[in-house]
Amino acid sequence: MTDQIKPIEQLMRRAKVIPVLVIDDLAQAKPLARALVSSGCPVLEVTLRTDCALQAIAEMKQVDGAIVGAGTVTNPDEMAATIDAGAEFIVSPGLTDRLGQAAIAADIPFLPGVATAGDIMHGLDLGLAHFKFFPAEASGGIPALKALTGPFGQCLFCPTGGIDESSAAQWLALDNVLCVGGSWVVPPL
C-alpha cells in the first residue's frame, strides 16, 4: 500500500456507518439524503435493486454534502450507468475481472465484495486492498474476518450483510474495519 490514502479509503473514513439504501419511491430520495446528511451520514449507498435507483442517485447528488454511490453493481454496464447518473463510488457484492478492471480504468472509488481468502487474493492481484466483506454474518462473522486478517493485514474492510445497530460497534472495534454498511439505518422506501 502506498503512503497516500486512496479515495475509497477517504470515503470509508468519512462515516462509520454507510447507509445501504433501497429506494423504490423517487420522491423520497432528496428528503432522505437531506435527513441523512444533516444527521451526520454523508456517505450514501443507493442499491441498484429498484427501477428508479439511477434517478435516485441523480436526485440525491443534488443535496449539499451528500456523497452518493451505487451499490449492488454487478457488471461494467451497470457501473457506467451509475457513473452517468453521478455516482461517486461503486460497491459490488462480489469481484470479477471485468468489473474490477472497468472500475480501475474509470478511476472511480471501488469497494468490491469479498468473502474468502481467494476473493481477497483476486482483489490484491488487481491492485485493490479495500473491500466490502459480504455477506458478513453469513460468511462467518467477526471470527471469519479476524482469521482473514492474519494473511491479509494490509487490507481494510467495510463489513455488510447481517449487521445491525446492536452489532455494529463490535465490527467497528476491529482494527481492519473502517466502516460498516447499514441496511438497518433506513427501511426500503
Write the layout of secondary structure elements.
Elements: H1 7-14, E1 17-21, H2 29-38, E2 43-47, H3 53-60, E3 67-71, H4 76-85, E4 90-91, H5 97-106, E5 110-111, E6 113-114, H6 117-125, E7 130-133, H7 141-149, E8 156-159, H8 168-172, E9 180-182
Parallel strand pairs: 1-2, 1-9, 2-3, 4-5, 6-7, 7-8
Helix pairs in contact: 2-3
Textual characterization of the structure:
The protein is α/β, with parallel strands linked by helices and 189 residues long. It is built from 8 helices and 9 strands. The protein has a single domain, classed as TIM Barrel. The protein is 37% helix and 17% strand. Strands 3-2-1-9 form a 4-stranded parallel sheet, with helices on both faces. Strands 6-7-8 form a 3-stranded parallel sheet. Strands 4-5 form a two-stranded parallel ribbon. The longest helix is centred in the N-terminal third of the chain and has 10 residues, at 29-38. It is globular. The model has no long low-confidence stretch (mean pLDDT 96).
Task: Provide the descriptors you would attach to this structure in a database record.
globular, 189 residues, four-stranded parallel β-sheet, 8 helices, alpha/beta, three-stranded parallel β-sheet, TIM Barrel
